[in-house]
Amino acid sequence: MFKISTRGQYALLIMTELAEQPEGKFTPLKLLSHRHNISIKYLEQIFIQLSKAGLITGIRGSNGGYRLIKKTEDYTAGEILRALEGELSPVTESENNVVSNIGIDQFWNDFEETINSFVDSITLEQLVERNKMDYGTMYYI
Predict the structure, then answer these.
(1) Beta-strand pair 65-68/56-59
(2) 123 Cβ neighbours under 8 A, 6+ residues apart
């Protein structure tokens, strides 16, 4: 079964929250941890991957925290998920691919293309707007 891990789900959640903050404002890791009941260690692992992917930046110290690097409309759900999950594919690659040559390879290719097209069509800005519609305007930290 094709699943997005909790790390990928939390990455989308946290990126959405960072996007709701005033542009350029650093949000403390401790506050995000408390607000979402996620351990600081677990969040640090997620932030390391997001940072390596060039999606966020952070600073240490009393005024430290994390913020987005780009504008919200320049991020896609796909790039955020891939930063944590790797390639989004419903089938695993292997040398001894059991389903190869049985006439349904095109089905799996189309399925993968559909998944990737969908996640790449949703921007972080759209996720923020959907969140506002579902829960009202978020408060700033």
Answers:
(1) antiparallel
(2) 72, 73, 74, 75, 76, 77
Entry field: residues in the chain: 141
CB of 85 within 8 A of CB of 45? no
* pTM of the predicted protein model: 0.83
- Separation between Cα atoms, residue 52 and residue 107, nearest integer Å: 33
| Top-confidence residue, 77 or 95 | 77
Mean pLDDT within 93-107: 62
Strand partners, 79: none
In which band, very low, low, confident or very high, does the pLDDT at 141 lie, cut at 50, 70 and 90?
very low
